[in-house]
Amino acid sequence: MSDLRITEAFLYMDYLCFRALCCKGPPPARPEYDLVCIGLTGSGKTSLLSKLCSESPEEVVSTTGADNIRKYWSRYYQGSQGVIFVLDSASSEDDLETARNELHSALQHPQLCTLPFLILANHQDKPAARSVQEIKKYFELEPLARGKRWILQPCSLDNMDALKDSFSQLINLLEEKEHDAVRM
Description:
By secondary structure, this protein is α/β, with parallel strands linked by helices. The protein is built from six helices and four strands. The protein has a four-stranded parallel sheet, with helices on both faces. It starts with a helix and ends with a helix.
């Protein structure tokens, strides 16, 4: 075999190896999930989501928190695959009780009761913020959400790493649900 053919053969093999290692095409598409984000006015839904998405809060249309709109939350539920419930952990007792009732209602709603929940105890940077343990006890999450998949996480705009970690945990729950559906 001539030197030219050997060189061509090696070049071709190098090309195939390069192609096999580096050019497998575009990375696989990441799954997309439809999530509904609910919470009382002032809980921080718009601020958290806009900061998480690196968007200006003015560009995000805030509609779900207003007291007169709360009765229409269920219209947003259809097609949702997960729920983000944001509560103000530093709110008044009255607002905390209202948030508790709304969360209980959402956890028991027929369209949401089987979905994973990410409950964000926002405003942890404020002096009056209640701890996750206090919120878990006050909201009676252990008995109410038994058998459901939920995560209660502290958060604030000052700690985006913790917020991103919370969403990673929610994605893990969503992926588990997807795998469970495939197995059935």
